[in-house]
Specification:
The protein is α+β, with helices and mostly antiparallel strands. It folds into 2 domains: 66 residues; 194 residues, Orthogonal Bundle (Helix Hairpins). 29% of the residues lie in helices and 29% in strands. The chain has 7 helices and 13 strands. It has a 5-stranded antiparallel beta sheet with strand order 1-2-3-5-4, covered by helices on one side. Helix 6 crosses helix 7.
């Protein structure tokens, strides 16, 4: 099915749109701003954009505005993706980034490709993070636990993260710094007296309006765990799986009982894997 003009056209290919146009830097910038990264993907073979069907009219409007021509929006009824639950063997998840559309997401490395998208909101829900963009992380955020976590949950989270971030295992540039943060969070939260004083400080800080989010709006979130076997719900779109909810997150363990820790080394083409235990 093809809808075209002299310099732009939209095709329907399965459950996605393929958008061809003559090159215009303003059009490209506007498209990246208007269409979330989860709903667009550049296809170098076709030299065209793969776009989610919901943005058909947006493509028409952008084409008219930047190229000065009119194209027809294709009928997209029935062109939808099905929500499904999957088990993903995720070998690396980095910090979320603003992809130019105001939405922060992180890509997950699965099966040798960056083919899973984790919205920041989904990661924060799983790790019980309630801060606004730019707010400082709490000690509970460092351990990835709720403020009402029990002592048992505090200990469990600490042991898990301390192993994952130990400088002997983790090759991330700031592994030592993060390991120290994890130790500090544990020491404060496992002691009832220091935890009580810390909670009081959080309550006081919450009563004072924060202005940091006015200036640090581009600060992304880095989840405390970088790999794992995840049960997630989402949709397959443009050859990538877009997560909207995380239901479980387990460590990856081999037949020898060792646990996987992964790191991203600057300049590497793939995550570095270390097994410990």
């Amino acid at each position: 099915m093809r809808f075209q003009s002299n310099s732009a056209r939209i095709e329907v290919d399965g459950n996605m749109l393929v958008y061809y146009s003559s090159y215009d830097p303003g059009l490209v910038a506007a498209l990246k701003s208007a269409v979330p990264v989860s709903d667009r993907k550049w296809d170098p073979a076709r030299k065209a954009w793969q776009i989610a069907p919901a943005h058909a009219q947006t493509l028409v409007d952008l084409t008219r505005r930047h190229l000065g021509i009119s194209i027809q929006a294709p009928a997209t009824r029935g062109v939808t993706a099905t929500r499904e639950t999957r088990i993903l063997d995720v070998r690396y998840i980095g910090a979320t980034k603003d992809r130019g559309d105001g939405n922060r997401t992180s890509f997950g490395y699965v099966g040798g490709e960056w083919n899973v998208i984790f919205p920041e909101a989904a990661l924060k829900r799983w790790f019980a993070v309630e801060t606004k963009p730019g707010d400082e992380a709490t000690l509970y955020n460092v351990l990835g636990i709720k403020q009402l976590a029990t002592d048992t949950e505090v200990r469990s989270a600490y042991r898990r993260l301390a192993r994952q971030w130990h400088p002997d295992v983790c090759k991330e540039p700031d592994a030592k710094e993060q390991f120290i943060h994890i130790q500090h969070a544990y020491e404060v939260l496992i002691d009832p007296h220091t935890r009580s004083r810390y909670d009081a400080g959080l309550a006081l800080a919450a009563s004072v309006p924060s202005r940091r989010d006015m200036f640090d709006v581009n600060v992304g979130y880095r989840p405390p765990l970088r790999c794992g076997l995840l049960m997630v719900t989402g949709i397959e779109q443009l050859g990538r799986f877009i997560v909207d909810e995380i239901h479980a997150w387990e460590d990856i363990v081999d037949i020898q009982g060792r646990t996987l820790a992964t790191s991203w080394v600057m300049g590497a083409d793939a995550p570095t894997e270390e097994w410990y235990g």
